[in-house]
Specification:
By secondary structure, the chain is mostly beta strands. It has one domain. It is built from 1 helix and 8 strands, in the order H-E-E-E-E-E-E-E-E. Strands 1, 4, 5, 6 and 7 form a 5-stranded antiparallel beta sheet that branches. It has a 3-stranded antiparallel beta sheet with strand order 3-2-8, with no helix packed on it. The longest helix is centred in the N-terminal third of the chain and has 11 residues. The protein is elongated. The chain starts with a helix and ends with a strand. The N terminus is likely disordered.
């Protein structure tokens, strides 16, 4: 089985908690700012989650594991570890790292909802 990008990012984070896969020094944020889109109603909602916190978006539960950003440039790219589950079916729809600058690299695959990372909270 071919390893996924999310699995590779997770392995890098576990092996080198202060370095990204590019060898850039990273800092763990105090939380993340996420955006959720309901594609049917066009409702857009911003979520501010602390690590371990969850929010409900329609039938989905979005849980943040952690958010990281480059130490030298906090306003640049951020990436967040999230688990997104469907409360109706109990299925896990997303479990991994999502990168703010490339949400399609590792994205939620749901017919109705999109969720992506805007950035980390650093204070």
């Amino acid at each position: 089985m071919k390893p996924t990008i999310a699995a590779a990012l997770m392995a890098v984070s576990i092996s080198f908690p202060a370095l990204s896969q590019d060898g850039i020094q990273t800092t763990r944020g105090n939380g993340a700012i996420l955006r959720a889109l309901d594609k049917v109603s066009s409702d857009i909602r911003d979520l501010q989650l602390a690590p371990g916190e969850a929010a409900e978006v329609g039938r989905l539960t979005v849980r943040l594991g952690e958010c990281r950003y480059p130490t030298d440039d906090p306003n640049s790219d951020a990436y967040a570890q999230m688990v997104i589950t469907d409360r109706n079916s109990g299925a896990t729809l997303f479990d991994g790292w999502m990168v703010a600058s490339s949400p399609a690299l590792s994205s939620l695959d749901d017919a109705r909802y999109d969720v992506w990372v805007l950035g980390c909270q650093s204070a």
